[in-house]
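Batch queue: ligand-bound targets. Current item pairs a single chain with flavin-adenine dinucleotide. No template structures supplied; prediction is de novo from sequence plus SMILES. Inputs echoed for audit trail.
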Amino acid sequence: MSKPYEKNIVIIGGGIIGCTAAYYLSHHPSYSPSTTSITLLEASKRGAAQGASGKAGGLVAKWAYPRELVDVSFTEHVRLASEHNGTDRWGWRFVGCGSWEGRGEVTNDEGSKSGVGKGGARKSLEKTLGLDGGKSTKSARKAKGLPDDLTWVSEDLTASYSPMAPAGDTAQVHPYLFTTSMLELAQSKGVTFTSGRATSIEREGGCVTSVSYTDVETGEVGKTIRASHVILAAGAWSPSLLPTLPISATRAHSITIHPASGVTIAPYVLFTEIALSQSNSKRTTTVSPEIYARPTNEVYACGPGDSSKLPMTVDDVVVDEEACESIRQHVASISKELKEGAVDKHQACFLPVASIGGGPIVGEATKIAKGLIVATGHTCWGICNAPGTAKAISELVMDGKIGCVNLKKLDPARYLP
Ligand SMILES: Cc1cc2nc3c(=O)[nH]c(=O)nc-3n(C[C@H](O)[C@H](O)[C@H](O)COP(=O)(O)OP(=O)(O)OC[C@H]3O[C@@H](n4cnc5c(N)ncnc54)[C@H](O)[C@@H]3O)c2cc1C
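Prediction returned. Tokens below.
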């Protein structure tokens, strides 16, 4: 008879947090597949990274927040890219990143819509909160400041461009490729991927004991996996398993554009403020799409968030085509290159937002049960902060305490009643 495992780790959620946790656990020095079993449960029929982790921009920045996670995460992103050829495998590279302000030229009134999906008030994704002031300085506004190679936005329409951080402080990954690479590397060390929607986390005597789930392929309900440790990384869906978690969901739309062949898109990420005037009135609307050049000459752009209702699973997320078309028009309004490009993806996803205390929430929820580890609420910085989160969790599970960083501020005890 084979010996029972010393640790049975179940990760709920195959987004960037869950997949990167699987990578760090399976690469921890004391991990052995003969003593530790790791199972990653993912509710989507289409596999990992179908939510925010596959549809995000992919910025990795030293100026992101919270500080404690960013410091570990940035260094780890650099290491992972160098160890696993992230440049080819997941589009790792350093990028210029700046705030761009100017006018947009629209050909009809459609372009002056806000880009917010049906489902509620416009919500900022709040990426620039980590910067002092968050916007360009007055002196930078006076001069246009456009870098020589940033030729894919119209110089005439530019009022100002100012870098957000010094060169070397901002990088990017392709989030879908990064997440699925983390999973593949974890699987190569013995992690099991299971298509299943977790329905409950069982506990006994103050400790987690198992996870019940519905098999996504067969529809069979009430299947269980034994667990000594459960990592709850189900993004915006995490409260469906732990209802007291103060996590809310914000939906955001994005598109990808392929510029015409022969057009080179220099590596910049732009946080824009575009003043659009309506042809039949003097009113001006300001829109703020984020625009990301990617190494494959693909360009990604996203609009603001909205508060539409979180559906049952990631596969049920509805895309509001009008919101996507608005993003396209806003981006096209400042760039001939993007206007003439072919739109590829129209997509939407929900990002997990900690509704109190800023978040994310990372650590063992001992108030609920020993062995229950929460890792969610990464808001607009989950791609950047996944490696730091995952490294900390792997230490918590394998060493019994987090050694790489002090995460007291993110401890579930501060967030759970
Ligand atoms: C428009 C946009 C742009 C962004 N840009 C950036 C950026 O440039 N840089 C950055 O750092 N961050 C960015 N983000 C934020 C980032 O995308 C998120 O913080 C991150 O993806 C969250 O990852 P996650 O794994 O927690 O959640 P998700 O990616 O949502 O993953 C959760 C997974 O759990 C699964 N799941 C849910 N319920 C269950 C269940 N019961 N059982 C099993 N599985 C379940 C879901 O199917 C899903 O796959 C952006 C977000 C948006 C929306």
